Amino acid sequence: MTVDPVTLTVIQAGLQQVCDEMDLSFSRAAFSPVIAEANDRSDGIYSATDGALIAQGNAGLPVFVGTMQYSTRTLIQMIKDGMVAPPAPGDIYIVNDPYLGGTHLMDVRFAMPVFRQSKIFCWLSNTGHWPDTGGAVPGGFSASATAVEQEGLRIPPVKLFKQGVLDQEIFSIIKSNIRVAEQRIGDVQAQAAALLVGQDRLALLLDRYGDATVSETIKELNSRARLQMLDALCDIVPGEYPSTAFVDSDGVVNEPLTIALKVTRDDKGLTFDFEGSSPPCQGPMNSVRATTLSSVYLAMRHIFPEVPMNAGAFAPFSVVGIKGTFLDAQYPRPVSGCAAEVSQRIAEAVFVALVPALPDRVTAAPAGTSGNFALGGFDPEKSREYVMYQISGGGYGGNADHDGLANGCSTIGISKAPPIEIMEQAFPVLYHRYALHEDSAGAGEHRGGFGLDYEIELRRGHAKASFVMDHGRFGPKGALGGIDGGVNRVTVVQNGSPYVPAHLSKEQDVPLSSGDRVRVQTPGGGGFGDPLERDPNLVSEDVRLGRYRADTAQDLFGVVIEQATCKPDINATHALRQKMRATPS
């Protein structure tokens, strides 16, 4: 069967629309701000035979593109092997086991088969970040866990909904192992409802065009995406492109972890070889295989956004060399930082490797941290426990065309920080500061974006704060002569005395009392190109807006700012830049 181009395009858009509606339904119905406001979730359609990605929502987190594909494939195989009960119409499986195609325990995946004439046509799956899944630390982001059991409840693939009915016994087990359990029913029902919406919308598409035509279209779209990606890779000169990236520490041993990468371009595509990376670590900065693969995919998605996102687009990529490293975590290694932090270091390593090969496409390194900050305690005014989860943005890297975005979302997704008004309404906190992180953008001809600087106060009661962040030791790398972005900073003020965590941006169970404050300053993006080539007027505008101090601008860009006018002194700037070029640091 040959599908004509118009029908092919219409069905492609229809499949995308199914996923987008699932995303929208999930966020609108969810109770937790991290899903309802921050959109920390994703929905997609997957093959009935091998779980291969067919389509994913545009508003979903890209890091889930590989993990849900891996997870669905694993579920299908476990059903074939008799390890999981076979599905019936209306069944919805739940799983958050990181080693079966997941991320960390807070990312809970649902999967539902779509039946057509008593046969599974495809699977619908989604992932939502639950604010808490138990474990030692409210919010699940343990900075010093040494085993996965300390991070929360690990759920194997089981049917949470059986023929459309919630299994109360399984749900009771889940509720009895997590905090603020009474709030989970809203997120559970929202997550299931999103899949049902997807099933209804997909049925309309199939009824209109026929199952055979849609199936043939999916095959053709996969084939075309593979060819498009291969064509895009032709811009890379065959050869080897090495890079390194570093994780500050694992939260237990205060030493950096190394991601060693060698990207090889040949006639088959790209091979990403991570041999030489650090071995498995004691703390929670291990990455499971599915997340490592997905991190490579999302990095290439950043570089080639025009290639449609399905399994075919990733066929030209091969990932090797991770066995025996912290990028292929095995039970019981802790993994709470794998999706939110290690994944972004992996993507950064890809960017750094490919900047020389694709200077017009690849940016300098972005902030590369989700800024995971969890606060758990008891609110005496509302007489209830709470778990607050705050994510935050940072600066994107500069590129060949323009400056990096300030306070952009994390590399792994398009989730956003919840509005401070919502957070203050839901939790006993008060935001005293929410601004750009001054001086954090890496200098370059095109500078990086600025990070975020926020400060909150605990208004009442007692609480415990936990942080799993990164880039506190090393700033995001600059590219082609650009300067690294500013580092992440965490400061806790207890009884008026400031405290900086030993691991800089990783700590757990920091006690807070009413009036204590937490200040977080996220990283800026790396600069792109020689800072001494930057337009002096752009530098002076950043100084005028308070983004750089005048002395910092002079040191980084060689631009002398007139105090009276806040404009560049062109003659003094020219002389200073000549001197700096003659005596490079």
What would you say about this model in short?
The chain has 585 residues and is an alpha+beta fold. It folds into three domains: 5-226, no CATH class; 363-530, no CATH class; 535-582, no CATH class. 29% of the residues lie in helices and 22% in strands.
Task: Tell me about this structure.
By secondary structure, this protein is of the alpha+beta class. It folds into three domains: 5-226, no CATH class; 363-530, no CATH class; 535-582, no CATH class. The protein has twelve helices and 20 strands. The strands form four sheets. A seven-stranded antiparallel beta sheet has the order 2-1-5-4-3-6-7. Strands 14-15-20-17-18 form a five-stranded antiparallel beta sheet, with helices on one face. Strand 12 (372-379) and strand 13 (384-390) form a beta hairpin. Helix 5 (184-209) packs across helix 6.
